[in-house]
Specification:
Layout lengths: L1 E5 L4 H16 L3 E7 L3 H6 L3 E5 L12 H16 L12 E4 L4 H11 L3 E5 L20 H31 L6 H10 L4 E3 L16 E3 L15 H8 L5 E3 L9 H14 L4 E4 L14 E4 L4 H4 L5 E4 L3 H9 L4 E3 L6 H10 L14 H13 L1 H15 L3 H13 L2
Parallel strand pairs: 1-2, 1-4, 2-3, 4-5, 5-6, 6-7, 8-9, 8-11, 9-10, 11-12
Length: 406
């Protein structure tokens, strides 16, 4: 079967799809990853085909207010939609759509007859069990959670309105709103596989049957991959260090955040690894208790750490728990407060520290707790054991078999 996985956004949105694609390719399918040019090397490195999606999320960043975030998100998906159909090669048998690309992919599936399914990294279907992942971390009660979840979907529909209108016109489809399409697919029980662990989010009992949790979709890592020699030397030179990294968040705040991180680590008596990321974190190169690194596979580095300080993106949150190490979550935006609270609820992290409230003293205190109180390590280890039992490839391949008659 020729499968196209379509995703767009930050590295955290794209990298997990490389592992999903590699698993499908290993089962004998021909898999192509459609994403933006920035991540072409990720697709090819995983042995997948690559198809270009237009738009670059880096060109639509820097927003502050909620209204401005909505505006920039709409501009990104509108640009994405204008070339989306071109990314689907003739002969594609199945579309696998991320939450970012699904509202566009639905239209293409309707126009071409190509079946589709969702592969989402966050829960976005309304439920009484918790508030929407992209809006609030504070529980609102079962009725309030469901109402907030429906409101969140309406906001998403507004973001995609122009893109979907243009795409349906270009495909020769009659006008139909994003919300109407979504409701039609819900009625048909359109399948969605969620790439996160039930160690963090148990499946809500009020979800429809087609919404399933498959376990975390891990980024593809080459079997021969190794950590750089400088990192290995640093790890062996003393006690387990703490990694501090904020992924694609906090661009331009590197100097301030680096100072906070180094002060907090030293105040807590810990060695540290600063992962530069979009913020540009960096430690003094002459300091023997600190090391600055770029992108490294979480699967190789995290199990050798004492703790991870991170922005609580879905992928980093899962990777820390999988490694059995505690976290200090410093969420910034979007679904990050949600994952931060899920880590704390699991006992693998203290209460989150919002990025705007981050200080060296608060970070040092949190680091002292997670590295000295064994309850955090025990909870993280329990989460890791739970995750190891989840049959991600089996769940995904069983769903794919529905489209092949297997």
């Amino acid at each position: 079967m020729r499968i196209l996985i379509a995703t767009a956004g930050s590295r955290g949105d794209v990298a997990p799809c490389t592992g999903l694609g590699a698993a499908l390719a290993g089962a004998g399918h021909e898999v192509t990853l459609a994403t933006t040019d920035t991540f072409a090397s990720l697709a090819r490195g995983a042995g997948l085909g690559f198809r270009r999606l237009p738009a670059d999320p880096r060109g639509h960043g820097g927003a502050g207010s909620g209204r401005e975030l909505m505006r920039t998100a709409a501009a990104f998906v509108t640009e994405l939609g204008r070339g989306f159909a071109d990314a689907v090669a003739e002969g594609t048998d199945l579309l696998v759509l991320s939450a970012t690309t699904a509202p566009l992919g639905w239209q293409l599936s309707e126009a071409t007859g190509i079946p589709s399914l969702g592969a989402y990294l966050q829960p976005n279907a309304p439920t009484g069990d918790f508030p929407p992942a992209v809006m609030a971390a504070r529980p609102l009660g079962r009725t309030g959670n469901r109402l907030a979840g429906r409101f969140a979907l309406r906001m998403v529909d507004r973001i995609y309105a122009q893109a979907v209108t243009e795409l349906r016109r270009d495909l020769g489809l009659a006008p139909l709103s994003v919300g109407a399409t979504r409701r039609r697919l819900d009625t048909a029980d359109w399948p969605v596989l969620h790439g996160f662990s039930t160690a963090l989010v148990p499946r809500p009992a009020d979800w429809r049957p087609g919404l399933r949790i498959a376990g975390t979709f891990w980024p593809d890592v080459d079997a021969g991959a190794r950590l750089p020699a400088a990192v290995e030397d640093f790890l062996r030179a003393g006690p387990r260090p703490v990694l501090v990294g904020f992924g694609s968040m906090a661009s331009g705040e590197g100097e301030r955040l680096s100072e906070i991180a180094v002060r907090a680590l030293r105040q807590a008596g810990l060695r540290g690894i600063l992962q530069s990321g979009a913020a540009g974190l960096a430690a003094d190169t002459t300091a023997d208790d600190m090391l600055t690194v770029g992108d490294l596979p979480h699967a190789l580095l995290f199990p050798r750490l004492a703790a991870v300080v991170h922005h609580a993106g879905a992928g980093t949150t899962a990777a820390a728990l999988r490694a059995g190490v505690p976290s200090v979550a410093v969420p910034v935006t979007a679904d990050q407060p949600f994952w931060a609270t899920r880590l704390a609820a699991a006992g693998a992290a203290p209460a989150p520290i919002p990025m705007r409230a981050l200080t060296a003293d608060r970070l040092a205190a949190a680091l002292g707790r997670v590295t000295n109180q064994q309850a955090y390590s025990r909870a993280a280890a329990q989460g890791a054991r739970h995750m190891s039992t989840e049959d991600r490839p089996g769940v995904v391949l069983k769903e794919i078999d529905r489209f092949t008659g297997g």
